[in-house]
Amino acid sequence: MDTARITEILADPVTLDLVERQPIMQIAYAEADGSPRAVPVGYLLREGRFLFFTIPSSDKVGALQHDPRIALTIDAYPPPCCLLVRGTAQLREEDGVPDEYLEASFRTMPADQHAGFEEQVRGLYDSMVRVVVTPTWVRLNDFQRTAPRAVERLVQAKQG
How is the chain split into domains, by residue range? Predict the structure, then answer.
């Protein structure tokens, strides 16, 4: 997919609203044995890339080091809206707890829980793995301007 088109979709106001409303995305990747895995994670969208963190011993780390292809979905209802992304993951272990991990995590909880959560994770994690997903394909289905391709093809066929 054309990089300019990816940038256009990721900058679309509907996409930005969706990202703001939904702090959890589902990621999908292949385990080392080839079996599929889908996992919810907190995330940030930064400069056209998706960012999330995990611990070094996570199954995600080994799987994505073996095969960096990844898919993600961000969706919210009502009204139905979803962003579908395919891309490649780059992984880098970092000492301590990155501020961006806390920022992503804080999006999922009330503000009065932030301090306790931060204290807990700083005491638990010696390091974390930064996963940066660079999109190679994206699709926004807002069900106003766009819908799943199969539905769009069906509508076109019915309209002649």
Answer: 3-159
Which three-class secondary structure state does DSSP give residue 93?
strand
CATH class of 3-159: mainly beta
d(CA 149, CA 117): 41
Length of the chain: 160
Predicted TM-score (pTM) of the model is: 0.91
Pairwise CA distance, residues 146 & 74, whole Å? 15
User: In angstroms, rounded to a whole number, what is the distance separating the alpha carbons of residues 69 and 61?
Assistant: 12
- pLDDT tens by residue, 17-68: 999 999 999 999 999 889 999 999 999 999 999 999 999 999 999 999 999 9
- Edge-to-edge, what's the strand order for the sheet holding 49-54? 36-42, 24-30, 69-76, 81-95, 127-141, 49-54, 44-46
Supply the DSSP symbol for 112. G
Residue with tokens 């932030």: 114
Strands 69-76 and 44-46: unpaired
